[in-house]
Amino acid sequence: MRINWDYIKLTFLSVAVVALYGFAGHRNQQKKVENVSVKFVGESNLYLTEDAVNKLLIQNYGPLKNTPKEQLVLNTIEEILLSNDMVKNAQVYLTVNGELVSKIIQRKPIGRIEGVSKFYLDDQGKRMPLSKYHSARVPIITGKITGKTLEDAYMILDYINQDDFLRKNVIGIHIEEEGNYQLRFRMENFVVNLGGVDNLNKKFKNFMAFYAKAAKDNSLEDYATVSLEFNNQVVCTKI
């Protein structure tokens, strides 16, 4: 009987490769976390610090440094991060060097409610608690705060943030009642009566036309109120 040495060599080589990969995989799983780091994506203003993140993880998961890789459950760590009210999204992964990295995207406030309760309104129209680490420079919302008026305030802020001039100059929204909203500007003394949130695009286009003309005439300081409530016109009250 003739022995096929090539076949035996190929079989032996295959077994050796599988064993080598298995041994390497086992050793890799036995390796421990060498370092833990937190990276904030996007926003430079931190409403949550790296120390606060590490404390959150330790309290809810336990110490991570020197933990064997095979004991880590990355999805669970991500869920812990997402449980924090300042976190919009989180991704956790291990590098080949044994570093456990948490990438965090913070929630973004676009308005601050000043009333019996104080909180932010974020860029998705949801309530966001104030941060003890940083105070956002966003328009202040005052007046009659309800679920509906906050929805309307979000629509107004969302529109304002799409326009460079409005974003830089609108510093406040006052809610007289549902459907009756007033805007306050950084450099001007007049109040803009916006009315409701219907036809926002038309109302702001009318306002921008008025503002450009009044600025050219040096008459902005002459007005106490500027009303956009009426269809296709701007009604002003002088001081």
Explain how this protein is built:
The protein has 239 residues and is of the alpha/beta class. Helix content is 35%, strand content 28%. It has six helices and twelve strands. The strands form two sheets. Strands 6-5-4-7-8-9-10-11-12 form a nine-stranded mixed sheet. A three-stranded mixed sheet has the order 1-3-2, with helices on one face.
Largest sheet, strands/sense/barrel: 9 strands, mixed
User: Mean pLDDT across all residues, rounded?
Assistant: 87
How many β-strands, per DSSP? 12
Uncertain ranges: 15-20, 22-29
Q: What is the percent of helical residues?
A: 25-40%
Q: How many helices in DSSP terms? A: 6
Question: Proportion of β residues?
Answer: 25-35%
Order of helices and strands: HEHHEEEEEEHHEEEHEE
- Using the CA coordinates, give the radius of gyration: 29 Å
Q: Which structural class should the secondary elements be placed in? A: alpha/beta
Strand order of the largest sheet: 6-5-4-7-8-9-10-11-12
Overall shape: it is: elongated
Roughly how many Å apart are the termini? 114 Å
What oligomeric state do these chains adopt?
single chain
